[in-house]
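Note to self: keep these together.
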Amino acid sequence: MTSALLAGPAVLLASAHDKPHSVMACAGSATVRFSPGLSLWTRHSQLGGSAHYTCTGTDPDVKWAESKIEGSGETSCLSISSTAVEMVTWNTGEHSKVLYRQQPLVQTAGGEVVSLVDGTVVEGKYKGRSVSSPGAQITLNPLDCATKKGVELIDGPTTLVIV
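Structure:
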């Protein structure tokens, strides 16, 4: 599935809960905060953030979405293993709750994050559908990994693909 995502979300085909053979592909940006921040030492952290997406797909009514992300897990500047929930609000007023189960969600290097996250829509629009959310978030201060405070904020491009 990763190679299809790299080739472009529009090439993905799947059967949909709402409509047969539909797919929703959204691109945008995400900001995620960690408390305590990512450091060289693994520790339990809370994460929270938001994302804004522009969407295209076989559901012509869906044009954009906003979301809030919350979770927790074992984190460091070298790896993150967490569980997260993303609450998506679509421009139609509908909602989706996406569960990203505990897994190595992202691999980090010096506070820079490349995520290849998979989950499931557990409530609302697209319930039962699979979700992939690859992205690349960065920090302006990667040397904060070596401090007690750590890297508290990362942001950058992300996608949300529902099949």
